[in-house]
Each structure stands twice: as structure tokens, then as C-alpha cells.
Amino acid sequence: MTARPRAIVVGIDGGSPVLIEAWVKQGLLPGFARLMKEGVFGPLASVPNMRSAAAWTSFMTGRNPGKHGIYEFYEYAADRQKVRFLKGGDRDGATVWGLLSAAGRKVGIINVPMTYPAERVNGFLIAGLDAPGRKSPGFVQPPELLAELEERFGEYILEPGLTGHIVAGHTDIAVETLWQELDQKVKVSDHLAAEKPWDLFVTVFRSLDAVQHCFWKHMDAEHPFHDREQAKKYGSVILQAYQRVDRYLDALLDRLDGDTSLFVISDHGFGAKHVATTQLNRWLAAEGFLAYRKRGVLVKLLGSVYRTLVGRTFRKTKETLTRFFPFLRGMVQYQLCFAEIDWSKTTAYSDTLYPTIWINRGADGPLRGAVTEERYRELVARLRERLADCRDSVTGLPVVGQVFEKSEIYHGPHIDRAPDLLIRWREDITIHGLARAGEAAGDTRVPGEDPSVISGDHRVHGILFAHGPFVRRGARVENANLVDIAPTLLYAMKEPVPRDMDGRVVQEIFEDSFARENEVRLTEAGSNGAGGQDGGYSDQDEEVIARRLKALGYLE
User: Fold this and answer.
1) Which domain holds residue 379?
2) What is the model's pTM?
């Protein structure tokens, strides 16, 4: 073994410990089975909101979102009518590969979300889905690498676009595109790992997240939108996606040398999507926290026409509308979600996309903040009390597992950008809807992003596997968190760990002899490290990012 060991990180976006353990027991994932037998395995807690932009940024920085400043792929403008799209360049804090580059170590990074524009690292970096496209300036560092890859593997597939194919009724095309993208990522990863020098190599398979969002209902017989006939054809697609990654891991294990550790991680887990989140504003209205103006004829007509267009219009027609009126869908959807709200009488609201509540206070409110600072604490306490008694519309059972204030789960200079309350729905029951939300709650659902299409959603616990020359064998690790991965990687590579990282070194992964001989060395905080290019997205870039995030269910 050399004095400076190397590491590989394989990211499986949305990797589920529940699915993997079940399929390993059935003998369906031999690569993962080897990792369990020959290394360490355990659950990996995600960031509190379980959102990919926040999670992958915490992975790469070792910091919670309150420090690195990324909670979502976007931020709302104060009037709630616009969003500002975020990217890797908006991150506050150095990345683990930026720190290694500064220390003279070689790095190779592929497809990690929130890495656009690509940092100028000591090695190479291919940005993730926050890049507008493969031809965007700063997509790849060094720039000439893209031409080299495309000459060998064809046009680089950034995202397979599963949701768009499915909404258009082309599920078979969605599956075929998924296999093309996964196979290309495997080939690109194998090629770059073999042909380029590196000390840290990171590759992320993002399509595992997309396939679980779209195909969960076919696999899950208990899902309300499960169809037995459709399940015969598509029920194994998620398993097949895992098996393709499993084959990659199995072959990778065969090639590992005595200097290299392998870490397999995910940013969050997965399960069935809850309909409750889409109904939060109607529930808040029923509980007296949100007020609606009288519904206008225009908004009512707009909603009816829009849903007809989305549900029944041919794909080519929709593409034409998008091309000539690029902001139309976003404008309509914001109108459907927020236009009816009487902001002057509203104290709390949600964007109905993920389970958070914002307090409409002071200058931070959307129009005329209705909540003073003095009244804030009283309102938060009353919301928590009412949420504790929030019931299922069918069974009458309580549906809320936990409620967190932002100060309980985040800390740092950017905590003011976080929603005020975060809700965790119960996972031990089927949630049919929120009692008191009323039938009108369905009005807030966006076609193509409701549970009939986006049928799977994120869960708190993802996966952590570790394998290597000084990693324990056949052990299980508990209580690891996503922010622990960056400091643990630095420690495994015998590099110092910045003091301002929130994560800890998960020393229980390693053999006692390695831990005894290698104390954790702390160093002062690194530089910002976010720079590849400065500035925001252009208008054209924002259109591309908006369409992609809407298709993935990350934006209404």
C-alpha cells in the first residue's frame, strides 16, 4: 500500500436500503451482496428536507444547508411569482475535490448534481443536471474532454427525460432512453477511470432517482395508482435499473487495487409519493392560516384549459407551445398555486411541492407580510399543535410523524433562506389525503407531477457501503449522515479535515489498526471553492433548467 491511498465514490441517486437489502436476500444483486460481505453497510441519513440539490451539496462540502446555502434547485422571489434558479456556483463552501486539488491530488468527477459551472480542478469534472446542456460554457473541465468522449460514446446524455416521454404516452421510449443513459454513464465512467490519472474518482447515476419517481406505482402493489396489467410490463423496471448499476459495481470490485477504497452512497432513500403535500394550502385555509380571495372566472378557466392541454394535447403541439411561449407553463402554474391567495390575510402557506410551511412575515413576506416578529412564535406553536392533529381523509388516523422548526435542523449564515417548518409524514400508514382540505385540494396538483405520474418520492435514509484495504469486513454501521462523507473521504485518503465541516469522520468503518495509526487531523476552513464561472443563468438557460426541473417533479 502507498502512503497516499485513493478512493472511488459511486453515487446512486435515491438508492434505497429497503430495496437493496430485500433484493440481496433474493439473490438479485450479487454486486451489492459482495459489498455487504466484504465491507461495511448501513443507512445514510439525508439532509432534513431530503431534496437532491441540498443533499448532494452537503455530500461534497460536509456542511449543512444553513452553511452552504443550497436548499433547493431554486429560490422564490419575494412576490412568489418568479424563481431564481441555483447552481453549483451559488454554493458557499469548498468541495472535497476542490480541497484535494489544492493539496495536489488528482480528481475526476462525473455527473454530480449542483456542480455547474465545472470547477477548475486538478483533473477533470463533468457537471450534473444543474447544467443547462452539454454545450453550455463551463459544462466540462477541461473543455476538450467532451469532444473526446462524444467521439467514442456518441452525444453525451445529461438527463434521459423519462417524465416527458411518459406524460406523452411513450412509456416504452422512456424505458429505452433510460437504458441508453445508464449504459453510457457506465461506459464513460469505466473509460475515464481507466484512462485518466486520479486519486479521487466520483461518478453519480442520477437516473435511479428518475426511474423510481416514475415507475414506483408499477412495482408497489399497494400504491393507489397501481395497475396490475401495467405492472406486468413495467413492474421490474426499477429492479432492472438497480441490476445495471449492480453489474458495474461487481466489475469495479474485481478491478480494485490494494490502494483504493470504494464508497457507494445515495443522497436519500425512496418510497411511495404522498398526496398530502399537494393539499397543504387547502388544509392551511381550513385551519384559518391562509385566506383565499373569491376565485375569479379567469383563474378557473385557466386551470380547466391548462389541464386539458396537458392531459390531451399531442406531444408535438405541447413542444411547439413551449418553444414559442417558453414561460407560459410556469406563469400558469404559479397562477394556479398562488393567484387566489389573499396575502394580506395569510399567515402561513406552502408551495405544495414538498412538505414545508413558510410564515408570511414582515419584509420577507410575498406581498404585504401579515405576521409581525412578535407574533411569529405564537403562530409557530399553533401550527405545530394543529399539525399534530392533522388526520387522514379516509381512515382518520394522524398523518404527521414529526414537525421541525428550521432552527432545530439547520445552522449557519444562510438559515434565513430555509422554510420555517418542515413536515415529515408518517411512513407506517397509507395517506389518502388530508381531512379538512376538501375536494378543492386537487386543484393545486400539476398534471404530470401528481402521484399518478410521479408516484415515488424521497425518504430520509439512503445507503452507505464502504469497501477497501483498511475497511472492516461484513460489518454494519449505524448513525452515519450525508455530511459525514466528505470528512470520511479525506480521512481515508490521509488528508486533513477542515474544522468548519459539520460532518464527522465515521471511524467505525475502518479497522482498529488503521484508526489507531491515523488520527483525525484538523485544519482551518478552506476557501469558498465554488468558482468555475461567475454570474447567473441567462434567460435561455433558465428556460432549459425550468423545463428539466418541472419534468423531474422538482418545480411546479
Assistant:
1) 276-292+341-450
2) 0.90
